[in-house]
Specification:
- It is elongated, with a radius of gyration of 27 Å.
- The longest helix is centred in the middle third of the chain and has 26 residues.
- The two termini are 32 Å apart.
- The protein has six helices and no strands.
- It is mainly α.
Length: 142
């Protein structure tokens, strides 16, 4: 590794370093690569298109639901539940207590479900076992 490649690889750009190596290999294998600018530019476009897709995936994984959005949704949920509780408390029946409990249970359950599904590929107990699935897939294909 050269000095700039070593720094880039340590910062998490291993795939980017490998793509640069691929571009160098193609450049070294093509005779008169300066005269074949059309072919080299097409290859560069393909490699950088792959890099853009990788960057999109990385950016989406590193930026889950914004913190402010989470608090706004929590506030809206609490406000809605307070309105339900007030309207049910004004009723003169015991069925209002049971229905209020069920409504609270369902809404809080949906909130917990949405929080768990916000990142289904993490390391929590309820997340998908992606590594196990990929190992099983490789074993079955190979």
């Amino acid at each position: 590794l050269q000095a700039d490649e070593d720094g880039r690889a340590r910062e998490g750009g291993q795939a980017f370093t490998i793509q640069h190596w691929a571009l160098r290999v193609v450049r070294d294998c093509v005779d008169n690569w300066l005269e074949r600018d059309d072919m080299m530019s097409q290859f560069h476009d393909k490699v950088y298109g792959i890099r853009d897709c990788q960057a999109d995936v990385t950016n989406k994984l590193n930026m889950p639901m914004p913190f402010q959005y989470f608090h706004l949704m929590t506030f809206m949920l609490v406000f809605t539940l307070l309105l339900w509780a007030y309207s049910l408390a004004c009723m003169d029946t015991y069925f209002a207590v049971i229905s209020c409990f069920l409504i609270l249970l369902i809404f809080i359950g949906f909130r917990e479900l949405c929080t768990s599904l916000a990142n289904p590929f993490g390391t929590d107990d309820v997340d998908f076992p992606i590594n196990l699935w990929l190992c099983e897939l490789v074993w079955r294909v190979g």
